[in-house]
Amino acid sequence: MEYVKITKDNIDKEHICCAISNNNDPQVISKKCWLKDRIDEGLVFYKSVERGKCFIEYIPAEYAWVPIDASGFFHINCLWVSGSFKGHKYSNDLLDYCINDAKEKGKKGVTAIAAVKKSPFLLEQKFLLHKGFKICDKANPNYVLLYFPFNENEKVPIFKEQAKNPTINKNGFVLYYTNGCPFTAKYVPLIENLAKERKIEFESILIKTKEEAQNAPCAWTNYALFYNGKYITNEILSENKFLKLVEELGVNNV
Question: pLDDT digit string (tens) for 126-138?
Answer without folding.
Answer: 999 999 999 999 9
